[in-house]
Write a structure and sequence with these properties.
This protein has helices at about 5-10, 55-75; strands at about 15-20, 25-30, 35-40, 80, 100. The protein has about 110 residues and is α+β, with helices and mostly antiparallel strands. The termini are far apart. It binds 2'-deoxyguanosine-5'-monophosphate (DGP).
């Protein structure tokens, strides 16, 4: 079965898209854990941050250039970026993604 996030960026699944460009797409999380909770992913299947290398790091560059644009659009000044890597760290979808969480007080250390 194809990866659910690959289906999202190929528009095979209907999703509320927040921002999109040639390399990345950002959309609302299905199970939000904060009033503002979106995901940003590469439009290429990369399992996790652990698979980043010199051949695909352009996706990371683009993701992190886009995050300030996205949060500015939503007037979000304080926020948290999370990427879970591996099941015991909480990764449930094996397609690299960054959670952008905001509009509530964040705790530290995270759970
Ligand atoms: P993680 O647990 O870190 O791998 O985060 C995966 C997130 O993906 C989780 O917060 C829920 C979200 N998610 C899973 N399936 C879908 C989906 O089909 N659509 C959307 N919008 N989000 C999804």
């Amino acid at each position: 079965m194809e990866c659910i996030f690959c289906k999202i960026f190929k528009k095979e699944i209907n999703t509320k898209i927040i921002f999109e460009d040639d390399l990345t797409i950002s959309f609302e999380d299905l199970n939000p854990v904060a009033p503002f909770h979106i995901l940003i992913i590469p439009k290429k299947h990369i399992d996790s941050v652990n698979e980043i290398n010199e051949n695909n790091s352009i996706y990371i560059k683009q993701i992190f250039e886009n995050i300030p644009k996205i949060v500015l659009k939503f007037n979000l000044k304080d926020y948290r970026i999370v990427s879970n890597i591996g099941p015991s760290a909480g990764q449930s979808v094996m397609h690299m993604h960054f959670h952008i969480l905001g509009n509530r007080k964040m705790n530290w250390p995270p759970g």
